[in-house]
Amino acid sequence: MRASRLIFVLFLIVVSCRGKVFEPCELAKLFKYEYNEPLTKYLGSNLPFAMCVAGYHHYDTSYRRQHPNGTVAYGIFGLTESPNGPDRCTNSRYDATDDQLEDDFKCFTKTVLVHKDKAYMYHRLCASDLTRKYMCQENEYFDIVEILEPIYKDILDLSHGEEHVVVKFLKAHNIDFYEPPKRGSILIWIIKTYIWPIMKEYPSYILYPLIAICGILVPRLLR
């Protein structure tokens, strides 16, 4: 009887610690509600950015990408640490590939974003021209959070995270890695594409409310 109980307990431990592939909105809710403290402490509450980085690792806590030089990126943030060895960001042994994510925020900040080139690459890959925005909802009436979904989700898999390969990949798609879109240019595009045609077509009693609505929506789009 004791043996069977022990086996059951061990089974529960294994199940609770194994990795998981999340649905984007499921992970966003988890970040917002269960991991709000490390999200705030290490990423300044920038949930869209955290979701974007997770998207490049397929929302998979057991993600694993091996570089030709032998280096391995693990987990939902692509941490280049041994998943079962001593870790310099926690000074302990922890598994970067399980679904316990609190230490992952800390390690991502201290072992990845601490390097300026890596920090720039992730922020560039999460810029408006390389991501799509959509809103996660609790139900049809209540929005949870706006998240960023990568357009080229496999770019890190294909490039092994090498900047020069990322640059070449984006260049093939007519995107400049070193010139992220400027907020002003996005605003001008919105005005030219949507607002100006309306201004030419509709009388002022329709135009003014539309301008007011745009004044509310445009800042949200540029966040």
From TrEMBL:
Q: Record's PROSITE patterns?
A: PROKAR_LIPOPROTEIN
> Which SUPFAM superfamilies does the entry mention?
Lysozyme-like
Query: InterPro entries recorded for this chain?
Result: Lysozyme-like_dom_sf (IPR023346)
Q: What name is this protein filed under?
A: Uncharacterized protein
Q: Which organism is it from?
A: Apolygus lucorum
